[in-house]
From TrEMBL:
Residues 6-190 form the DTW domain. One of its GO terms (molecular function) is tRNA-uridine aminocarboxypropyltransferase activity. Its EC number is 2.5.1.25. Pfam families: DTW (PF03942). InterPro entries: DTW, DTWD2/TAPT. GO terms for biological process: tRNA processing. It is an enzyme of class 2 (transferase). The keyword Ribonucleoprotein does not apply. Belongs to the TDD superfamily. DTWD2 family. It comes from Alteromonas hispanica. The keyword Cell membrane does not apply. Keywords: S-adenosyl-L-methionine, Transferase, tRNA processing. This is tRNA-uridine aminocarboxypropyltransferase. Signal peptide: none annotated.
Length: 198
């Protein structure tokens, strides 16, 4: 007979109770809605940081690309006049310094949660995202997220991308976000081969 996984999970943070992160979660109030469009393979990934963003920021929403109704609603609500995409492309502007198109007055900031390859696929499958003004980091800080391997230089976790954007654009104190990510890393007991090599 198959053995079912009966490991208990926290009803609040949804991590296993043995690695509950609730004590490391503090709220971050921001003047914009954070929308994370998530590749389906990221939803149940143990090292995914989008969940931490939603735990820390009350007006953050995670939408799976498989939820057609939610994606369609997002598409209807996110217009070039009220929303922006944080994703590097040929037309994106750097967030650092003066912006040709200020984003402080926008209502929604959209982030893509997934590997670089997955994120590219999400953009290609949702052409409406290409109509939004987009922004990138000209000088991305070095990531402190070491428990997930990548070969991309200056690649940030989703949480770090959100934190850097809020810090650069709104001057938000994002220490609570970084504290949550650090707590996740401290709880992680995976093999060293899964860690990022600097």
């Amino acid at each position: 007979m198959p053995i079912h996984n009966t490991r208990p999970y926290c009803a609040i943070c949804h991590y296993p109770t043995s690695t509950c992160l609730c004590s490391a979660i503090d709220q971050v109030l921001v003047p914009v809605d954070i929308v994370i469009l998530q590749h389906p393979k990221e939803k149940d990934h143990a090292k995914n940081t989008a969940r931490l963003v939603a735990l820390c920021i009350p007006n953050a929403t995670i939408i799976s690309t498989t939820d057609e109704k939610a994606v369609n609603t997002l598409r209807e609500n996110c217009l070039p006049t009220n929303s922006a995409l944080i994703y590097p492309n040929d037309f994106s502007e750097p967030l650092e310094g003066g912006l040709a198109t200020p984003i402080q007055s926008l209502h929604n900031l959209v982030f893509i949660d997934g590997s670089w390859k997955q994120a590219y696929g999400v953009i290609q499958q949702n052409n409406w995202l290409k109509t939004l003004p987009s922004y990138h980091f000209k000088h991305a800080p070095q990531s402190n997220y070491a428990i997930r391997h990548t070969t991309i230089n200056n690649a940030l976790s989703t949480l770090e991308a959100v934190a850097c954007t809020l810090s650069n654009v709104f001057g938000t104190d994002v220490s609570a976000l970084y504290n949550a990510q650090n707590a996740l890393q401290q709880q992680w007991q995976g093999p060293l081969s899964h860690r990022r090599k600097y």
